[in-house]
Design a protein that fits this description.
Length: 187
């Protein structure tokens, strides 16, 4: 299985993490200052539990959603996850819903950020409010993943959880050090 790597870009960081009170918001930094940001790498192969659960499930559902267009993903899923056809339909529906939620959450964050900027809202306030949107979206993702698990048989649930943990060990993420605590929320 290919290593899944995510680099949390400055744009994503803007929509997901509030700055520490003593720091200037990342929105206010010029390119030279951006280069000075300390990044922390989270390597799921070394410490899987350091990869937040919401990230794990987002990746699992992206993988499942991509299986229809990628034969390697399809084979990996068939080999790793043992689900009855009705359960696979539930998981496919969840993958499509996850993709839609991700799209909607991003659009909402951008929309709210632009509206706040138009009202000349201070950058620190904008960053905090966008972080709240991000946290709300993460919580909904986790609730949706838990809901899917409750709909599966014991074997299906264990199989999907085992697969999710395997995916978790393939994830490498880089996060600005000052945003690490927020990145780990809610779990």
């Amino acid at each position: 299985m290919a290593l899944i790597t995510i680099v949390v870009s400055v744009l994503v960081a803007l929509t997901q993490a509030p700055p520490a009170p003593q720091e200037r918001p990342i929105l206010d930094l010029d390119p030279a200052q951006l280069m000075k940001i300390k990044w922390v790498e989270i390597d799921g192969s070394k410490d899987p539990k350091a990869v937040p659960e919401y990230i794990m499930w987002q990746h699992v559902y992206r993988f499942i959603g991509a299986r229809h267009s990628n034969p390697d993903f399809e084979r990996a899923l068939e080999a790793e996850v043992h689900l009855a056809p009705s359960e696979l339909a539930i998981v496919d529906t969840a993958a499509a819903a996850q993709a839609k939620r991700a799209e909607d959450c991003h659009a909402r964050a951008v929309r709210e950020q632009l509206a706040l900027k138009e009202r000349l809202t201070p950058t620190v306030t904008i960053t905090r409010l966008i972080a709240e949107v991000s946290l709300e979206c993460r919580t909904v993702d986790l609730e949706a993943a838990e809901n899917v698990l409750t709909q599966l048989s014991g074997e299906g649930r264990n199989s999907l959880r085992t697969f999710a943990e395997k995916i978790r060990r393939t994830i490498t993420i880089s996060v600005p050090a000052h945003e690490l605590a927020f990145f780990r929320l809610p779990r």
